[in-house]
Specification:
The complex is a heterodimer of chains A (about 110) and B (about 110).
Chain A lengths: L8 E5 L4 E6 L9 E6 L6 E6 L4 E2 L4 E4 L5 E6 L8 E7 L10 E6 L1
Parallel strand pairs in A: 1-9
Antiparallel strand pairs in A: 2-7, 3-4, 3-8, 5-6, 6-7, 8-9
Chain B lengths: L4 E3 L2 E4 L5 E6 L6 E7 L6 E7 L2 E5 L7 E4 L6 E5 L8 E8 L7 E2 L3 E5 L1
The chains are: A mainly beta (about 110), B mainly beta (about 110).
């Protein structure tokens, strides 16, 4: 299974864009990149996924590099409620969670 | 609320007792997953059902653990002879056949004294 590397923590000012990076240099050609987040004391929440092209939905945008070895999750206007642990996962089916990035959105 | 539900939300038990958790997935989701999460760690995969068939089990799922999904609807996870190391949040997730993403329930927090 492809392994992912994320910074353990990040801060972001409320209203600014939060850019969360993820390295997945061992990703194989048919593996998708998934992002989930987990707000304290809740179950994880699916955010977005992509294969090669950049993707956008109502929650976030996903930018995948051309070589697919890394990606960035963008929350365009972070709010206090976006404070959570964000997980980048490379695999469908059973999810293999790493340590994730703890994002703190500050007023 | 049509999300994934889990019961109970909290369970405190004494070491050596058996416990059973229930997960009700989103209606018509044929895939159901169980995960375990300990403090400060990401969730770890335990087992996966497609309809009523248990298709994969993690090595984490020792013989004290058993999961069922009769009739392909709700699922139960039973832990026999609980140990203090079983204390964790047990998460259930479901997904439909041809859609990405898993929908997680709120979890059952188990404390073994």
């Amino acid at each position: 299974d492809a392994k992912t590397t994320q910074p353990p923590s990040m801060d972001c000012a409320e209203g600014r864009a939060a850019n969360l990076p993820c390295n997945h240099s061992t990703i194989s050609g048919n593996e998708y990149v998934y992002w989930y987040r987990q707000i304290h004391s809740q179950g994880p929440q699916y955010i977005i996924h992509g294969l090669k092209n950049n993707e956008t939905n109502e929650m976030a945008s996903l930018i995948i590099t051309e070589d697919r070895k890394s990606s960035t999750l963008i929350l365009p206007h972070a709010t206090l409620r976006d404070t959570a642990v964000y997980y980048c996962i490379v695999k469908g089916g059973k999810l293999i969670f790493g340590q994730g990035t703890e994002l703190s959105v500050k007023p | 609320d049509t999300g994934v539900s889990q019961n109970p939300r909290h369970k405190i038990t004494k070491r050596g007792q058996n416990v059973t958790f229930r997960c009700d997935p989103i209606s018509e989701h044929n895939r159901l997953y169980w995960y375990r999460q300990t403090l400060g760690q990401g969730p770890e995969f335990l087992t996966y059902f497609q309809n009523e068939a248990q298709l994969e089990k993690s090595r984490l799922l020792s013989d004290r653990f058993s999961a069922e999904r009769p009739k392909g609807s709700f699922s139960t996870l039973e832990i026999q002879r609980t140990e203090q190391g079983d204390s964790a949040m047990y998460l259930c997730a479901s997904s439909p056949r041809r859609a990405p993403g898993q929908f997680f329930g709120p979890g059952t927090r188990l404390t073994v004294l």
